[in-house]
Write a structure and sequence with these properties.
- The protein is an alpha+beta fold.
- The protein contains seven helices and four strands, in the order H-E-E-H-H-E-E-H-H-H-H.
- A four-stranded antiparallel β-sheet has the order 2-1-4-3.
- A hairpin with a 5-residue loop joins strand 1 and strand 2.
- Helix 1 crosses helix 3, helix 4 runs antiparallel to helix 5 and helix 5 packs antiparallel against helix 6.
- The longest helix has 29 residues.
- The model has no long low-confidence stretch (mean pLDDT about 90).
């Protein structure tokens, strides 16, 4: 089965992350969508005005499902959430590697240590030890 590419807004991404932590209480709205309590959205840092629309979109994408008075994340929703988190982590590691490449001319040992740390080949403790060793300062 192919994994669909789903683009979410920041508020939809936030709501999806919140659903991963705990279901969101909902009740049937007067329109087509579900209503969410203002207190529930405020506690989670969600925008009360956009939450019902965002929830409707997440349900339409198959990332969430309404069940017995609350909205729950689906397996696909979890996969989309973690895929986004993986992309963010990869971008950060890419920044570290680009930084190491930039400073390599002036601090070759530091650059090598940063690369090894970013690649998971050494521990943070080993990187710190290497960075503060007397040979590094010389």
């Amino acid at each position: 089965m192919a994994f669909p590419h789903i683009v979410l807004t920041d508020s939809q991404t936030h709501l999806l992350a919140e659903l991963l932590l705990a279901p969101l209480p909902i009740r049937k709205g007067s329109g087509r969508g579900a209503e969410v309590c203002e207190e529930d959205t405020a506690v989670r840092g969600l925008d009360h005005d956009t939450a019902p629309v965002d929830l409707s979109r997440l349900i339409a994408f198959g990332l969430a499902v309404p069940r017995t008075g609350s909205a729950h994340i689906t397996d696909l929703g979890m996969a989309v959430h973690y895929e986004k988190q993986l992309g963010v982590a990869q971008a950060h590691l890419g920044d570290v590697v680009r930084f190491a490449t930039t400073v390599e001319e002036w601090h070759p040992r530091l650059a090598q240590t940063l690369r090894l740390l970013a690649q998971g080949e050494i521990s943070l403790a080993a990187a710190v030890t290497d960075a503060v060793s007397p040979e590094q300062r010389a």
